[in-house]
Amino acid sequence: MKRMLLGLGAMAGLLGSVGLARTAVANDDSATSAVPPATPEVAATRAPGTLGVGPVEVPAPSEKALRYHRSGNLIWTLEQALAIALPLLLLFTGFSAGLRSLASRLAGGRFYPTLLIYFGLLSLLLFVVELPLSYYVGYAREHAYGLSTQRFAKWAVDQLKSLGIGVLVGALVLWVPYWLLGKSPQRWWLWTGMLALPFYTLVLLITPLWIAPLFNKFGPMQDKGLEVEVLAIAQRAGVEGARVFEVNKSVDTAKVNAYVTGVGSTKRIVLWDTLLARLSPPQTTYVVGHELGHYVLGHVWTSVLLSSLLTLLGLFGADRLAGYLLGQFGARMGFHQLSDVASLPLLMLLLTLFSLAITPAALAFSRYHEREADRFGLELTHDNHAAATAFVALQEQNLSVPRPSLLYKIFRASHPSIGERVDFINDYRPWERGQRGQYEERIRH
Ligand SMILES: [Zn+2]
Questions:
Q1: What is the pLDDT of residue 445?
Q2: How many whole angstroms from 289 Cα to the centroid of ligand 1?
Q3: Count of domains in the chain?
């Protein structure tokens, strides 16, 4: 799905489906509008849990938010249809086989140069074909809804950078499954699948250090007082020696986000400047508490492990189905072996279908992680009011619909809806009843 699938080599496409890339506090398919920050009442400094103990109400979505939500569903459907139709078109018109022949001629029939030229040209072609939709979804539409602050030049350069990174990563890894397909046609899926774990781990470690800074500036936190609070809450969650970064996402979007990532000396708490501008200090502290929850409870590593297992399963399924399809349509597609690099769109297609099939389960698992991170953040701060009002602010800024349909939940929601989250937050206060929290033993008081 999306260019990512091809860009990172077919196997990395599964990453998205299990939510590995997810770090946002909310579903991140929407950006943010310039809505005033928290209400003065919320922004007022106070001891956590002592004021504003009444339940927070979830406001009804605006007409604009509903329009954004509905058209978003339509776009999602279109993107899924394209992710299936494009590979089919490339395969059944014989285009993929033709492109491979061209690449092979240019490369003098050598394995790696053929693969490289084929992959480079295919990436470029898909980039161009998808450009109108990318422009509409990523730029024009966001501006039309007042959600984007990005200048066109920045958008265009970011697109080219993504393309470059995709081609580079593909050039580095794509030869592996194809080389294995040549050496071990029976077991290539097993060996490739076993490499998924080290590959995803590397991606996870490298992305915050070398990829994210290619798109935005990461600087020290400006508000030193808040930085002290952030480090204090991290310490209470058992995260020591982390650096705090403020990233200038305000050049792209008004959407808010934060994450905690890295190990050892690369351990970092990253706050978007948009979040710092929109949320009050107690709300920011809660969001950091939520992200610390993901980190401390090992959600990212669980996702990496699960993604690796699913990749293995997906490759196995793709291998079996591809065998059948090659038997049926090989002549039509112009290749008969999976080890032929012309089969790349076929592998993409099969992995896309697999990833679509497991999407509901993967999203349900992701929503479970989110609920637990919300719980952890509450047990850390005991500040239900700041938490609930943070989500209400998020809803208004992101044009979210607080109680979307069941269909949306099943196929698209990586996070519980804002309505569900605020309901949970209003309710969850075991410490007021003298009960122990679920993660009590992980928190230093
Ligand atoms: Zn989260």
A1: 78
A2: 10
A3: 1
